[in-house]
Amino acid sequence: MKKRIAVLISGSGSNLQAIIDHIDADKINAEIVLVLSNKADAYGLIRAEQASIPTQVLQHTDYQSRHDFDQAVLKCIEEQQVDLIVLAGFMRILTEQFVSHFTGRMLNIHPSLLPKHKGLNTHQRAIDDKDSEHGLSVHFVTPELDGGPVALQVIVPISETDDASSLQKKVHSHEHSAYPKVIAWFCADRLLCRDNNLLLDGELLPQYGLKEIIQNND
Ligand code: GRF
Hints:
With about 220 residues, the protein is α/β, with parallel strands linked by helices. It is about 30% helix and about 25% strand. The chain has 6 helices and 11 strands. It has helices at about 15-25, 45-50, 65-80, 95-100, 120-130, 165-185; strands at about 5-10, 30-35, 55, 85, 105-110, 135-140, 150-155, 190-195, 195-200, 205, 210-215. The strands form 2 sheets. It has an 8-stranded mixed sheet, sandwiched between helices. It has a 3-stranded antiparallel sheet with strand order 8-9-10. β2 (about 30-35), α2 and β3 (about 55) form a beta-alpha-beta unit. α1 runs parallel beside α6 and α5 (about 120-130) packs across α6. The longest helix is centred in the last third of the chain and has 24 residues, at about 165-185. The site of 5-O-phosphono-beta-D-ribofuranosylamine has 12 residues, from α1, β5 and α6.
């Protein structure tokens, strides 16, 4: 049975596009039943409409509290009987109550090698810290910000000429294959989150997930 996915966005939605493309190519056994944005001008909404996916805009500024906004989002998702929530550039911190409701059923992609550089401006912080490598993490969402169990990391070398912008571009390009890969595992019932541990094909994943190492092409 195809899994039913809701994708939450706030912006460009290039990761959403990658997921749509992988579904169209039969690489993910799923259907996106809802794209929800907290920004009315998010370009990802146009991508969804072009793919005939139902969209919903809930602007957080229309709600009195974070709790009220999250309850409205939860209602939209529950109406669609969703199996998996995919956060794809959704720039809102969700309440613990919301996150707990979807334990083991909500994924996020974060542009750093967790547990390093949680939060924003990760590329600049990696440069500032003189890190030799940077990358991305695909993880399940828990109430701790960017703290849930990681399924996959892609490790990108930082070269001497990199700045935050070039590094962002490098990492972003790998997001578009890494995120669909993990979503495909979940949708094929190969990836399970149990008590903060991840199992892939019944095998316990290492802490911070499987690693893909990208060679330096500079
Ligand atoms: C990505 O960089 C992702 O790592 C972060 O938000 C950004 C979303 O980009 N969580 P896009 O909207 O999918 O292009």
